[in-house]
Amino acid sequence: xxxxxxxxxxxxxxxxxxxxxxxxxxxxxxxxxxxxxxxxxxxxxxxxxxxxxxxxxxxxxxxxxxxxxxxxxxxxxxxxxxxxxxxxxxxxxxxxxxxxxxxxxxxxxxxxxxxxxxxxxxxxxxxxxxxxxxxxxxxxxxxxxxxxxxxxxxxxxxxxxxxxxxxxxxxxxxxxxxxxxxxxxxxxxxxxxxxxxxxxxxxxxxxxxxxxxxxxxxxxxxxxxxxxxxxxxxxxxxxxxxxxxxxxxxxxxxxxxxxxxxxxxxxxxxxxxxxxxxxxxxxxxxxxxxxxxxxxxxxxxxxxxxxxxxxxxxxxxxxxxxxxxxxxxxxxxxxxxx
Amino acid sequence: xxxxxxxxxxxxxxxxxxxxxxxxxxxxxxxxxxxxxxxxxxxxxxxxxxxxxxxxxxxxxxxxxxxxxxxxxxxxxxxxxxxxxxxxxxxxxxxxxxxxxxxxxxxxxxxxxxxxxxxxxxxxxxxxxxxxxxxxxxxxxxxxxxxxxxxxxxxxxxxxxxxxxxxxxxxxxxxxxxxxxxxxxxxxxxxxxxxxxxxxxxxxxxxxxxxxxxxxxxxxxxxxxxxxxxxxxxxxxxxxxxxxxxxxxxxxxxxxxxxxxxxxxxxxxxxxxxxxxxxxxxxxxxxxxxxxxxxxxxxxxxxxxxxxxxxxxxxxxxxxxxxxxxxxxxxxxxxxxx
Lengths: 338, 338
What we know:
CATH topology of the largest domain in chain A: Rossmann fold
Strand order of the largest sheet of chain A: 8-10-7-11-14-15
Radius of gyration of chain A: 20 Å
Structural class of chain A: alpha/beta
Strand content of chain A: 15-25%
Mean pLDDT of chain A: 94
Oligomer: homodimer
């Protein structure tokens, strides 16, 4: 896709001097979901994160075939510490692209842009796309599309889409995960950070992300935000319209009582969420259907999980699953069968 | 508002060498809705547009107190023709800001940025905001808010909001029109071009536009796009959520069968549109209500208009009006009375 970011693989994953695994969740996500793209790891002194990949310097990794150094940690504040700069310069000199999802852009590092230009490598700020997009048209495209949507942010829309795309490919179905956020882009190596696109072009960017395809091809599109979130619903709706999904998967965290960080906004009931997402999605695909409910059950034990699935299935008459725990055969059947 | 554009008035309105009045609709809009801001007009040879304002050169206008030259035409293609450049340079030399809503930015005109810097004047590209905005919070703000929403784009949301703000002020109510598009910004001299804001910050920008205010103060907010438009619904929804309106006014063009330029998208029925806008708006204001329906009846005769109003009022049980034709007393009563 000419309009989206394309990353060069495989990666040398850099985890800085991070001493807390949760701040390295991008690194773990990329390692777990794109193991074939992860050649090695590199750390600074004091780092407590170990990805169980070979340790290599930038020079060794370049020699072994790495194409990019990927920054896999997000330190508190989102800024690139000065202590990282020498290693990033070494990576550029070794011929590696640098891939960052930080708030600060790579060209703010003294001398790095010029060094990259001279060495012929690229500095990729996944959070700051430089592409432009057309206005959306609503034109129906060929091929099939699935989109994950949710009752809130940060509850598993990305991992649900990744797990479904993987299960479909395991069944021999021609399926692509389509990334709409920075970690997803790093995992699959391409995509569009949809929340960084100028508002006028949200649905146009989403249309660009899943172009015309073969009739039996599936794009499995990572959702963003939530229709019920006062900060991000516009992003969610523009992405949904541009994606024109044939199938929706509704993602939910059953332990959450209100939106993350917004105590005044209760999580809406699942049947209400299902109805509203379908109403909205019908604007660009009259035949859209909901094929399953993805429940984040990481905080439940087996008995609680089984009870929750049974209860939710009886209310919604749809298969329930946890993308990190469940087999997805029945779900894939349901996705394929209109 | 620190985050929004602020224009310096009064204006010298420039209509170039335009030979077709429809391309000068910005100039007419500013003259009709902000007559006190319009000091004079200036043309190039061949211009067929006359705003019935005094003719002045940039130098004469500056001498008479003008603060900005406002480009009031949008030539086909949206680019600034080379033939305009000498006059724009003269305006800068005379000490006027330049205000443009064109796609090309003013700093693309050779030498203009530097001349403006030296002369201490500002080049304002209304379509390309340089401000940044916070993420929306959904926090309830003080004061009252009205938002215009529509069944499509380009059917009168701006003029409806302008007419309501004017009618409210005529009744002694403390009311401000809040502009969200370039023509609206030029008319009232401030605002935020909401469709040019990065997606992540749509509702945050809308929250910034109508800040906390006195309990009886009304912000009358210009809507954008339509929830039922596949290109722009994300902008519409983010703006709606950030505006947290107490009152909605639904705008509609009864002669339109499908979305402007999109023959595959029929205009939705008014009761359906009313229901959906209220559902969406409740996320950030549980007490939102619909107070009236604004009908663009410019293509109807008096008898047709009367019949349409009666018919629509009986279906929706709400006052109907045409902002360019009707008295708005009954509507304002309805707005003020929960």
